Amino acid sequence: AQSVTQLGSHVSVSEGALVLLRCNYSSSVPPYLFWYVQYPNQGLQLLLKYTTGATLVKGINGFEAEFKKSETSFHLTKPSAHMSDAAEYFCAVSAYLNQAGTALIFGKGTTLSVSS
Amino acid sequence: EAGVTQFPSHSVIEKGQTVTLRCDPISGHDNLYWYRRVMGKEIKFLLHFVKESKQDESGMPNNRFLAERTGGTYSTLKVQPAELEDSGVYFCASSQRPGSYGYTFGSGTRLTVV
User: Fold this and answer.
1) Contact assignment for B91 to A90 by CB distance below 8 Å
2) What number is the average pLDDT over the span A84-92?
3) Residue of chain B minimizing CA distance to A38
4) Which of A36, A42, A51 is opposite residue B107, by nearest beta carbon?
5) Which residue has the higher pLDDT, B20 or B41?
6) Residue B72: strand, helix, or coil
7) Among chain B residues, CA nearest to A92
8) Chain B contacts of A94, Cβ < 8 Å?
9) Spatial contact of B45 and B32, defined as CB atoms under 8 Å apart
10) Under the phi-then-psi rule, with left for phi > 0, alpha for psi from -120 to 50, and beta for the rest, what region is A72?
C-alpha cells in the first residue's frame, strides 16, 4: 500500500532563505508524486508532479522537487523564500483504485511560515 | 474556463441534522472525486465518479454519507445524520482523464458539526 510521510508539520524560514520541505513515500509500484499548495481560504493548487522521465521536476512559483528512488524521497525546494509562499504544502502519491483510475494518498501537510 | 466550484464554503450544523454539499466540476470533466480532511489528519479519498456512475467509493466512512452525481454533471454529498466526527473540510476535484494527472480541486467546504 502507498503512504506518504511529511517530516515537520511546521517550517519557518526568513524571506530570501532556502525552503526545504521533506516528503518520503512508500509505494510498491513506480510512484507518481505530487506537491500541492493551499493558500488561506483557497483550494488545493498543483505545484508540480513527477510521473516518469527527468527526476528533477520544476513547478510553479520557482519551486522544484527531486525524485530519489533510492531514498524514497520527493523533497520540495525553493532557493529564495518570498512572503507570498506562506501556505500549507501537501505531498501526495498516486494509488491504484481499480482499472479505471487512481486516487491520491496525501501526507499530513507542512505549514510554511515566512518572516521578514 | 471556470474552475471546480463548491458550495457552501462553510456550514455549521447541529449533531443529528442533515447537510448537503455540492460540487460543480469543470465542464467536460467526466471524472469527479471527493476528498475529506478531518482536523489534524491527512486529506483522504472518499469516492470517484465517472460520469454518473460511482467508480470507487471505498473511502466513504459509513452509510451516513451518500454521494450522487445527477446526469454526470454536478455532484452532491449528503451527510445524514451528521456526527461530531464528520467535521472537516470536504474537497471536490475533477479531471478529464481518470487517474491523478490532471486533478483540479475546488476550494472546499468547511463543515462544522456542533
Assistant:
1) no
2) 96
3) B107
4) A42
5) B20
6) helix
7) B43
8) 99-100
9) no
10) left
Top-confidence residue, B86 or A96: B86
Cα distance between residue A63 and residue A61, in whole Å:
6
User: What stretches of B4-114 show up as alpha helix (H) in DSSP?
Assistant: none
Q: What is the pLDDT of residues B59-83, one digit of tens each?
A: 999 999 999 998 889 999 999 999 9
And the C-alpha cell for A52?
A: 516518469
Residue A96 has pLDDT above 80, yes or no: no
Q: Helix/strand/coil (H, E, C) string of B13-40?
A: ECCCCCEEEEEECCCCCCEEEEEEECCC
The least confident of A10-14, A20-24, B51-55, B109-113 is B51-55
- Distance in Å, alpha carbon of A105 to nearest chain B alpha carbon: 7
Residue type, A51: T
| Sequence-separated (6 or more) residues with CB below 8 Å from residue A51 | A32, B101
Question: Which of A113, A94, A102, A101 lies closest to A36, judged by CA?
Answer: A94
Q: Which of residues 18-47 of A touch B (CB under 8 A)?
A: 32, 34, 36, 41-46
